[in-house]
TrEMBL record:
Pfam families, A to Z: fn3_6 (PF17766), Inhibitor_I9 (PF05922), PA (PF02225), Peptidase_S8 (PF00082)
Domain of life from the UniProt record: Eukaryota
Keywords recorded for this protein, A-Z: Glycoprotein, Hydrolase, Protease, Serine protease, Signal
Entry-linked PANTHER family: PROPROTEIN CONVERTASE SUBTILISIN/KEXIN (PTHR10795)
PROSITE patterns: SUBTILASE, SUBTILASE_SER
Catalytic residues, chain numbering: D151 (charge relay system), H221 (charge relay system), S558 (charge relay system)
Protein name according to UniProt: Subtilisin-like protease SBT5.4
Family matches, as SUPFAM superfamilies: PA domain, Subtilisin-like
Domain (Inhibitor I9): residue spans on this chain: 29-114
Leader peptide range in chain numbering: 1-25
Annotated ranges, domain Subtilisin-like protease fibronectin type-III: 670-765
Length: 770
């Protein structure tokens, strides 16, 4: 009886949606991507205006008039990237996407900054990276290189961007400062560009806080990342007087340009696709050499993602694009920014700690980390857990996490409170403890964070301890009649072991978009990194914290990314002609996979990490200067890559600046990436790679470490180079040793060596399900 009615209901709904009043149709902001422009280098303003006109005409043909199109378009990408951003109805967007000239149409989506918490705080003696004077001298500290970032802007008064000692701005530079005034962001000979892009944010947020209409950094993140990549030497940099040392970026003599695309968070996103694309288009035009991008979203299709498209065009113009892998670890398959033209960076620890021991009355002592002030008196204080201190109306689990409104001040007053990490911000737990009257806090890691401990500028004396230690401390408090404890004064300690290990937050492979491409590519320091900061905000980011400091610490793949950008800057100074992929190859094939205990690098649970955590390994700038051989890639190789994953000629043509024929044999297995990943090995597979000599003439021999259950043969297994620039191909055949081998990923490696250089590539294999 119901069936006829049901079909009638469906029909009537369809009619309703067809005939509804267009005034009620919801408009959203979209990006319409049309591929590349093929302008002459000296393209005129009139030519660029003409491009905008064609965008108006094109959209006008869908909306009914050019005027409507003009109102709807808020960015016309006209220099290198071809496309526009516009306010459209879903139906209009769907129609436009069917047009043969359109590569893709996608929502102007929000992306996140890749910081765990922007108020994370700890101090280090020096700015993050491995230093080596001779190498820095050789690369002239990155002189002549221009490094840009896409971020929250810049604090121009920071000493890290002072132009003392810098010569004239390179004549090839075409960039500028949007608001070159003292109140805005004044350019100088070091900080040579500062622009801001907000229309995409505004289109999403509807309303913009216009007190923020400049490239000035009101957040701290952009100043931190830019100074990590290329901040000046700043001696006597300290945070609250501790950890006094010389702050510096990876390429301290490079010039810098800030492209502000991130604004106060709205629905959890700060940076929007439409702005990101415009920033890329302008940065390519301005003449940056390196772009450092510490933000991202969920992994998505290469041409439905502003960051991926922008990076593609930048790399096509010889710009190295370095991106953060994301902070969604330790879950597998979380890595973002997976485009093969990006350098994707995971995060790991340094060998520096700010140690503050947690001591119990029973004599037990646990090493924690802290940047907080010491306890008022040198005596034992009573201990209580958040669980025990729960307010009558709160749940034990929430109180254990020391969430707002869950603690009973009567119970907490005068005690050291033990809180569990997770769910809420670490500094907020400290704040709740302080509000409830605690004299101190022990922050115990949850299982997922393992051994990754971070020193924060808590509002009260505090120390953060590992998961295992936290278990013991909680058990002691729980099972002792009169539990007492103490937190020692925080003290800087260098050479801690093991280091590096992977940060728990660092996003991991496998790559969910193209599993044949290993991501991340590399890991670099991203835990407790000190760098310049905005003085518009407190180090904790808490509003009632009125402290302002020129240097701050922060953690995240946001922090590791600019380390790699800084090293890429040095390589660019040394080898101006190297392609972005040669630079990536040099960085990844010379990385190390062992820690300072000479054991394989571990994860935050101190279990052996894999290339899905660190790609090639931990960056070694000194070695990257002299890789011997590189796996190079041209723009055509990237086009072939796109052919091999199913993009057809029509689509390829739009971003290849002219006709491009997909080779009939385009095979992703032969894409010359500096790693080998076979996600579904069935029987055997042969992959081809090509190595270019960038060192001295010589003979290299192949050495293989076979993944468990997989046999690997290399043909030829010797490569002789007579001159620089010479390229030689070889084939690697992988075969399962037994029929049901390695259903899960297993890991090995291929190393080419002439006795001086070691050109290492990870091999990652999983057998196809039978
Ligand atoms: C320049 O920036 C300052 C500070 O944000 C702002 O008050 C001023 O309106 C800006 N000027 C222009 C022309 O955008
Ligand atoms: C933010 O998200 C909420 C809930 O999904 C939604 O109602 C709101 O419109 C969003 N805000 C904007 C500016 O899109
Ligand atoms: C705009 O930002 C400023 C600085 O953060 C803040 O004080 C002000 O309240 C904001 N205004 C609005 C309308 O959000
Ligand atoms: C940092 O060290 C320098 C040189 O060693 C010294 O002159 C300066 O006073 C120190 N600053 C602090 C805050 O300790
Ligand atoms: C418990 O009650 C207090 C005081 O009324 C309130 O501030 C707090 O938000 C409440 N907590 C919860 C978890 O409901
Ligand atoms: C602490 O003890 C209480 C009561 O004995 C128990 O319910 C709770 O699970 C214990 N908590 C921990 C973290 O061991
Ligand atoms: C470390 O690796 C082990 C084994 O893969 C995994 O179970 C664990 O969750 C990882 N821990 C972290 C913090 O990444
Ligand atoms: C290429 O792909 C697009 C989008 O999938 C499709 O519309 C078009 O017809 C294809 N062209 C050819 C020649 O196959
Ligand atoms: C693959 O890994 C999963 C999870 O790590 C494990 O449960 C499973 O037993 C493994 N399978 C094989 C064939 O090793």
């Amino acid at each position: 009886m119901w069936f006829p009615n049901l079909s009638w209901i469906v029909l009537s709904c369809t009619l309703f949606s067809l005939f509804q009043d267009p005034a009620f149709a919801i408009k959203k902001s979209y990006v319409v991507y049309l591929g590349s422009h093929a302008h002459e280098p000296d393209v005129s303003t009139a030519d660029l205006d003409r491009v905008t006109e064609t965008h108006h005409e094109f959209l006008g043909s869908f909306l009914g008039s050019t005027d409507k199109a003009r109102d709807s378009i808020f960015y016309s990408y006209k220099r290198h990237i071809n496309g526009f951003a516009a306010i459209l109805e879903d139906e209009e967007a769907a129609q436009i996407s069917k047009h043969p000239n359109v590569v893709s149409v996608f929502l102007n989506q929000g992306r996140k900054l890749h910081t765990t918490h922007s108020w994370d705080f700890m101090l280090l003696e020096k700015n993050g990276i491995v230093h080596h004077n001779s190498v820095w001298k050789k690369a002239r500290f990155g002189e002549d290189t221009i490094i840009g970032n896409l971020d929250t802007g810049v604090w121009p008064e920071s000493e890290s961007f002072s132009d003392q000692g810098f010569g004239p701005v390179p004549s090839r530079w075409k960039g500028m400062c949007d608001n070159d005034t003292t109140a805005g962001v004044p350019c100088n000979r070091k900080l040579i560009g500062a622009r801001y892009f907000y229309r995409g944010y505004e289109a999403y947020a509807k309303k913009m806080n216009f007190s923020h209409n400049s490239a000035r950094d009101y957040d701290g993140h952009g100043t931190h990342t830019l100074s990590t990549a290329a901040g000046n030497f700043v001696p006597g940099a300290s945070v609250f007087g501790s950890g006094n040392g010389t702050a510096k970026g990876g390429s301290p003599m490079a010039r810098v340009a800030s492209y502000k695309v991130c604004w106060p968070p709205i629905n959890g996103s700060e940076c929007f696709d439409a702005d990101i694309l415009e920033a890329f288009d302008i940065a390519i035009h301005d003449g940056v050499d390196i772009l450092s991008v510490s933000l991202g979203g969920d992994p998505s299709d290469y041409f439905d993602d502003g960051l991926s498209i922008g990076a593609f065009h930048a790399v096509k113009h010889g710009i190295v694009v370095v991106c953060s892998a994301g902070n969604s670890g330790p879950t597998p398959g979380t890595v973002s920014n997976v485009s093969p033209w990006m350098i994707t960076v995971g995060a790991s620890t340094l060998d520096r700690e700010f140690q503050a021991f947690v001591e119990l009355r029973n004599g037990q002592r646990f090493k924690g980390t802290s940047l907080s002030k010491p306890l008022p008196d040198s005596k034992f204080y009573p201990l209580i857990t958040g669980e025990q201190a729960k307010a009558a109306n709160a749940s034990a689990a929430e109180a254990f996490l020391c969430k707002e409104g869950t603690l009973d001040p009567e119970k907490v007053k005068g005690k050291i409170l033990a809180c569990l990490r997770g769910d809420t911000a670490r500094v907020d737990k400290g704040r709740q403890a302080a509000l409830a009257g605690a004299v101190g806090m022990i922050l115990c890691n949850d299982k997922a964070s393992g051994n990754e401990i971070i020193a924060d500028p808590h509002l009260l004396p505090a120390s953060q301890i590992t998961y295992e230690d936290g278990d013991v401390v909680i058990a002691y408090i729980n099972c002792t009649d009169d539990p007492l404890g103490f937190i020692t004064i925080p003290t800087a300690k260098l050479g801690t072991k093991p280091a590096p290990f992977m940060a728990a937050f660092s996003s991991q492979g496998p790559n969910t978009i193209t599993p044949e491409i290993l991501k991340p590519d590399i890991t670099a320091p991203g835990v407790n990194i000190i760098a310049a900061y905005s003085e518009a905000i407190s180090p904790t980011g808490l509003t009632f914290d009125d402290r302002r400091i020129p240097f701050n610490t922060d953690s995240g793949t946001s922090m590791s990314c600019p380390h790699v950008a800084g090293v890429a800057g040095l390589l660019k100074t040394l080898y101006p002609d190297w392609s972005p992929s040669a630079i990536r190859s040099a960085i990844t094939t010379t990385a190390r996979t062992r820690d300072n205990t000479v054991k394989p690098m571990r994860n935050a649970s101190l279990i052996e990490a894999t290339p899905f955590n660190y790609g090639g390994g931990h960056i070694r700038p000194n070695r990257a200067m002299d890789p011997g051989l590189v796996y190079d890639l041209t723009t055509n190789d990237y086009l072939d890559f796109l052919c091999s994953i199913g993009y057809n000629q029509t689509m390829i043509k739009s971003f290849s600046e002219g006709p491009y024929e997909c080779p009939s044999s385009a095979n992703i297995m032969d894409f010359n990436y500096p790693s080998i990943t076979v996600p579904k090995l069935s029987g055997s597979v042969t992959v081809t790679r090509k190595l270019k000599n960038v060192g001295s003439p010589g003979t290299y021999a192949a050495r293989v470490r076979e993944p468990l259950g997989i046999s690997v043969s290399v043909e030829p297994n010797m490569l002789t180079y007579e001159k620089i620039g010479e390229e030689k191909s070889f084939k690697v055949t992988l075969k399962a040793k037994w029929p049901c081998a390695a259903k899960n990923y297993t890991f090995g490696g291929l190393t080419w060596t002439d006795g001086k250089h070691y050109v290492r590539s990870p091999i990652v294999v999983a057998a196809a399900a039978s």
